[in-house]
Each structure stands twice: as C-alpha cells, then as structure tokens.
Specification:
- The chain is an alpha+beta fold.
- It contains eleven helices and 13 strands.
- The strands form four sheets. The protein has a five-stranded antiparallel β-sheet with strand order 11-4-8-7-12, with helices on both faces.
- A hairpin with a 5-residue loop joins strand 7 and strand 8.
- Helix 5 packs across helix 6.
- It starts with 12 loop residues before the first helix and ends with a helix.
C-alpha cells in the first residue's frame, strides 16, 4: 500500500523536528540540551548528580538522569577539529586565540610587560620530496591577500625540461587556481619519495625540539661574547645554579600543507632570568635585541639535521632537516601587516585544522579499515598512508648479543615498539602525531586555566557544588530531529550574542566619540 504525499506537509527529519517542537516538554528539553547545543556528536552520560552546599557540605538535592529529558545528560564533545564539530572547534579557536594573544600582550595572569619583549614569527617548512604542482604569485596587486585574485605564474615552466625516468613530463605550464585539486600533487607519483615524507612527519617534533635548543645555545654564546653574565638562581632543592641570562618562550602551531607535509608557525619571545623568582617574566638584558633572535633562528634552522634510526627498508636511515624556505618576521603592535592580533587569529585558525587541506579526513585506522585508504599503486594520499602502514610494521630486532636461556626463547628478539611504530598509529594523520598547538610553559596561560575560569564564572552565583557519578553510554544525538533542533537553537544563540557584542561596542565607541 503506497503512502499518499500531500504538497506542503513536512516529511522525514523535518516532520520529526516539528513533532518534537509541538510537545509540552519541548522548552524543557531545549534548556536541558543547551550546554551541548550545536555539538555534532555530544557525549551521553547516565548516573546520579548530587548538589552539595559549599559551606556546610550538606546534601541539598539528588537527581538521577532517568528523571531528565531523554534520560541522559548531554556534554559537548570538545573536539578541536572544525571538520568534525564546528561548534566545539569555535570554542577551541577562541581559547587558542587567548593563549597566543596573552603571550604577546599580557593578560590573564601574564604581566603586561611581555608586550615590550622582542618577538619574532617564524615559519619552518619541510624539504622537497619531489616536484609537486603549486601556485605562485610573483607580484601581488590585490588589496587583501585573503581574497587574492592575482594572476599566478605557470606551475613548472621549463623549456628544457625532460621526461622523468617513468616517462612523465617534468614541466607544467598551467596557471593553477587556488581551488585546483591538483595543487600539492606530485608531477610523477613514482618519482616522489613518499617514504621520506612520512618519516619526516613523524620526526618533525624532534627536529623542532633540537632547533629550539640550538636557538637558546646561540643566544647563550652571544651573551658570553658580549660580556653579559649568567644569573644565579635557587632551585627547589635549595641549590644555586648559574643559568643563561636569556630564555626563549615559544607558541607553536602545526599546519598540514596540501602535499601532506607538516610545517610549523612559531612565535618566539625573548625573556630574561630573574635571580629572585625563577618563574617571573622579565625583559631580556639590554645587550640582546630582536635582531639577535632573528639571527639565532636562521642559524639554528640552517645547521640542525640528524639521521633517523636504521630501518629494514633503509639501513642508513633518513636525514631530517628543515627546507630552504624559513621565514622570520618581527612582531609589532602597530598598523603593520604582522601585528599581534593578526598573528593570534592566524594561529588560532590553523589550530582547528588537521589533514583537511590534503583532501583526506578519517579517524584512526585499523587493520580492518586501512585497505580502504592505503594503496601502493594509488594516488598521492593512498601512497602516503600505505607508506605509514608499511614502515610502521612490527620490526624484529636483536636486543642482546648473549644466548637466551632455555625458558626464555624470545629473549633475543623483540617485536614490540620501535622508533617507527608511531607511523601506524598516526597513519590517518599522514605520520604526524604531535599536537597542533603547543607552547612553552612560561609563554602564556594554559587551556586548562581558561576552561576552569569559564566554569567558575558559570558557577559564580550558585551556592552549591554539583558532584556527579556518571558513566558513558554513547555519543551523538538520539535522532536527527534532536540534532537539527539543538544545533539550530545554538546557532541562533551565537548569532544573538554576536549582534549584542557588536551593539555594545558601537554604543561604547559612540560615547567615546561624543
């Protein structure tokens, strides 16, 4: 029996949402889901919530989640990736902006004096693993780089280009558009070194650690040559140590290029050392300037290189170092192109991204799911994932030169973790397993402090503390109608908040102008 269709009558998810909106408990359900409204996949919890008096510790009320709408408690997932949850990533981007900005201008427990410290904005890129299609604008005539419509140069314009050993042309005369899917793809898939790229990604964090150490050593040697003495500080154990008079604090964001190689945008700030308070943020000595910091970054980027441990597929390992494009700019607070606000917004934007720029987006891969993405004869991304899975396989290596006892037959072989084991764990990230936003401990405030401050503000007017005994029961909204209604209500709330902030700013500016 067929169902009659009447034009103008809602069906499917729209009909379900309409039915939910007409129920008597709709507004109670909407208030119940408000804290997780807008989240793409909220966490569903079940259990008991107890309200306890702040002063006396007396139990005021006790409620089980069975008494709530949907019989669960919703909590936002908190995912930082905009491709997975736009609403939670919007909150994360706001926190990331505050973390980066406070390290430049002060605020939120960071002294305002840091605004006078020398700061540079450096970009470290990966080396070349093979020729790829790219878009280069030799001369910009646009007013806004974010909406650049300038005519690019040909991709690889070479008159004398010869074919590669696989018979593919070594030139490309196409002027690629910014949205061209060929950008970042190799001119020849067989010539491109996919193994080298994923290995570089997995060791990029170690390369940055050594680079920062080299920057600090360069500045320490410079202070000694200029006669700036070391500073004596007292450790927690009571011992006196002599430390360099300058320190380098950093805030770092990783960005995935279209070719699938990671590169770093780093803020490096020069701090001094206080002999009376090791944690104090004081200006560096007068003899050390921002020019010295720029020179230290260039010197460290050019000299730091190391070889990875041996691998059965490459016994000599791979050489890990930075590419030729290392850009270092000074940060100012004026009206120039590189200001603290623009840099903070730029880094906060990339803190919510992962591999979306490459065209790949997936969760962690397993032996059951890897075949859907990895292919040694496939496209660029499929070969990168295949390289991660192949190089990260368990490796049998001898751990002892002596003979094993009879009761320990596996004593001379080890199939456990090794230096390349992380490639399989992070194959969905093309080998990179580091955090996308990291910072030095003394650079700025932490994400935890911002979240705790926000939670304390919400509980400021409450006279009780809620203690929950909750268990995880699932993730995601129960139905599509619930997701539609909750996300729509959250979007309307954010829009009203944005308009309200703009109106308040307009009133304040009007009062100042008057």
């Amino acid at each position: 029996m067929s169902t009659l269709h009447r034009p103008g009558v809602a069906t499917g998810r729209a009909a379900q949402a309409l039915h939910r909106a007409t129920t008597l408990d709709y507004f109670g359900w909407l208030e119940h889901t408000r804290t997780a409204g807008g989240c793409a996949r909220p966490i569903r919890l079940t259990g008991t919530m107890t309200a306890v008096d702040r002063d006396t510790g007396r139990v005021l009320t006790e409620q089980h989640t069975d008494e709530l709408p949907d019989r669960v408690l919703y909590k936002a997932c908190g995912n930082r990736r905009a491709a997975q949850c736009p609403d939670c990533s919007w909150v994360y981007a706001g926190d990331a902006f505050q973390v980066v900005r406070c390290g430049l201008t002060g605020g939120k427990t960071v002294p305002a004096s840091v605004a006078r410290h020398p700061v540079v904005f450096a970009t470290f890129t990966a080396p070349s693993f093979g020729a790829v299609h790219h878009r280069h604008v030799p001369r910009h005539t646009c007013a806004d780089r974010r909406r650049c419509d300038c005519r690019p140069a040909p991709c690889h314009a070479r008159r004398d280009a010869v074919a590669c050993p696989h018979g593919r042309p070594g030139a490309c005369f196409v002027r690629h558009d910014s949205a061209d899917p060929q950008l970042g793809r190799p001119l020849c898939l067989d010539c491109y070194d996919h193994d080298y790229q994923v290995v570089w990604n997995v060791f990029a964090g170690e390369l940055w650690r050594r680079t920062k150490q080299a920057v600090e050593r360069y500045l320490a040697v410079l202070c000694r040559r200029r006669g700036v003495p070391k500073v004596e500080v007292v450790t927690d154990s009571g011992r006196v140590r002599r430390v360099p008079p300058v320190r380098v604090s950093h805030g770092k964001v990783a960005e995935m290029q279209r070719r699938g190689a990671v590169h770093f945008h780093v803020l490096l700030r020069l701090d001094g050392a206080d002999p009376d308070d090791r944690q104090a943020l004081v200006p560096p000595p007068a003899g050390i300037t921002v020019d010295d910091l720029v020179a230290a970054v260039h010197a460290a980027a050019g000299q730091i290189t190391f070889a990875t441990p041996p691998h059965p597929d490459r016994p000599q390992g791979w050489s890990i170092g930075w590419g030729e494009q290392v850009d270092v700019r000074r940060i100012g607070t004026g009206d120039g192109d590189v200001t603290d606000a623009r840099v903070a917004a730029y880094l906060a934007k990339y803190a919510t991204k992962a591999t979306e720029a490459t065209g790949h987006c997936s969760t962690r891969l397993t032996p059951d799911t890897v075949d859907a993405y990895a292919d040694p004869e496939g496209d660029h991304l499929a070969r990168l994932i295949d390289a991660c899975w192949r190089l990260g396989r368990p490796i049998r290596q001898r751990t002892s030169d002596t003979a094993a006892h009879a009761e320990d037959r596996q004593g001379d072989l080890d199939s456990g973790s090794h230096a390349y084991a992380g490639l399989r764990r992070w194959a969905h990230m093309l080998g990179y397993g580091g955090h996308f936003l990291t910072k030095a401990r003394r650079y700025s405030v932490s994400f935890g402090l911002l979240r705790d401050t926000r939670a304390a503000y919400r509980r400021a007017d409450e006279g009780s503390v809620t203690v929950g005994t909750l268990a995880f029961v699932g993730s995601g909204w129960l139905t599509d109608r619930d997701a539609l209604l909750a996300n729509t209500a959250a979007a309307q709330y954010r829009e009203r908040s944005r308009v309200g902030r703009e109106e308040l700013a307009h009133e304040m500016w009007s009062g100042v102008a008057a």
